Target: TetR/AcrR family transcriptional regulator
Amino acid sequence: MSARARILDAAAEIMRTCGVTSTTTKEIARAAGCSEALLYKHFRDKEELLIHVLKERMPAFAGIRRPGEATVEENLVAIAHGALRFYTRTFPMMASMAAQPNLMVATRDSMKKYETGPHHAVEWLAGYLAGEQRIGRVSPGADSQVMAALLMGACFQQGFLHYVREGVDGGDIPESLAVTLVHGLLPVLLPGA
Model:
């Protein structure tokens, strides 16, 4: 395993169990079995490391779904299940940042610097839904931005509830929850539903 992969694995585990604010690059390097200097050869700062942990070590939002592939329902269930898993796994990492206003400002600055942030998931999903609208698989009257915000918001809230009930190692969130959330939107999304 490469040093970069060891660093990402160590950072993901420590950040997930201790929170981002309590995690130091020194701890991550020690857990990865490398020097702090080597860590900084791969990542500019702790913020960049966190962004790569989120992108590469947390459950994906079911990969890229393209309009016209599979069914709208299948795609949305896969996206929602990925979002539920992602939010459940990242809550312990993010809770300490949200609780400290000065750290939240620094986090916002880092998200701008690295052109990332939670809004990208909603924007991407709205774009996917608009693409499905253009080819007639989503109702022309459905507001893709609102539908995307509703689904991602529901996934965020349900991921949080799963984390609160089950804890850091509470097991995987069931796909049936994603199905339930998506089915609540299908009457508005699907033509003729």
Remarks:
- The two ends are 50 Å apart (CA to CA).
